[in-house]
Write a structure and sequence with these properties.
- This protein is of the alpha/beta class and 236 residues long.
- The chain has a single domain, classed as 3-Layer(aba) Sandwich (Rossmann fold).
- Helices cover 44% and strands 18% of the residues.
- Helix 6 links the parallel strand 2 and strand 3.
- Helix 4 crosses helix 6.
- The longest helix is centred in the C-terminal third of the chain and has 17 residues.
């Protein structure tokens, strides 16, 4: 008997699995570390976040802003700084019910993927903390090798934002299919579920077979009600 393909379980990260936004929290963390001017950086960070909430984020500008204070740091310094960020800022906003939700999908044998607009540098250890092996995030351009490797502040490839999430996910699934063992059952959008809080994810929410609005913003809540999608909270 042929094995059944696993269900594709997709999770947005910020304000879905987390009780907050990791990108914005990173800006506050840089302020705490004394790496940026407090007033100027907070004002710009808040302005970019407001753009995101309005669905008008200049993601290239935001990534450049996010990375600018750390571009000169060596890989070991970046790793240490990021780990401190996860420990001091992220661990406390990992929702217990979100951890349980992810675990329930893993236990069911689903292919679990965190798919987020936030860049891969920030989100790689967060995905690991949730026990999720697969992460699709906004990629970052790098130059050099080994200890000389540095981020440039630019995005690599398609930003994982709005319609870009479909582009990135489709490419990822196609790559898995190319590298799969013959007759291996593969997860696909034909049997998929996505959890998200944001109307920015409406393109992907409309593409999956099951859309779940998690503590949704007002625009997503209205669309979920009109479309008959499940609405749930991971915070109650």
């Amino acid at each position: 008997m042929a094995l059944a393909a696993p269900r594709l379980a997709l999770f947005d990260l910020d304000n879905t699995l987390l009780a907050g936004d990791s990108d914005h929290a990173w800006g506050e963390f840089l302020i705490e570390q004394g790496l940026v001017d407090e007033a100027k950086h907070r004002a710009q960070n808040d302005a970019f976040y407001e753009q995101y909430l309005q669905g008008e984020l200049d993601i290239h500008g935001y990534v450049a802003f996010t990375l600018a204070p750390i571009l000169s740091l060596a890989p070991a310094e970046l790793d240490a700084l990021r780990q401190e960020f996860v420990t001091s800022r992220v661990a406390s906003i990992m929702l217990p019910r979100a951890i349980d939700l992810v675990k329930s999908h893993r236990d069911a044998g689903d292919l679990c993927v965190i798919i987020t607009a936030t860049n891969e540098f920030i989100t790689q250890p967060i995905a690991a903390a949730f026990g999720v092996e697969h992460l699709i995030a906004t990629g970052l351009e790098q130059t050099g090798e080994g200890d000389a490797r540095r981020y440039t502040g630019a995005i690599s490839g398609t930003p994982c934002y709005q319609e870009g999430k479909i582009t990135k996910l489709t490419a990822w699934l196609e790559e898995r299919a190319t590298n799969a063992v013959q007759d291996e059952p593969l997860a696909s959008l034909a049997d998929s579920i996505l959890y998200s809080d944001s109307f920015n994810d409406l393109p992907l929410l409309s593409a999956v077979t099951t859309a779940v609005a998690v503590d949704p913003d007002p625009r997503l809540a209205a669309e979920a009600e009109a479309s008959g999608w499940e609405i749930r909270s991971l915070r109650d």
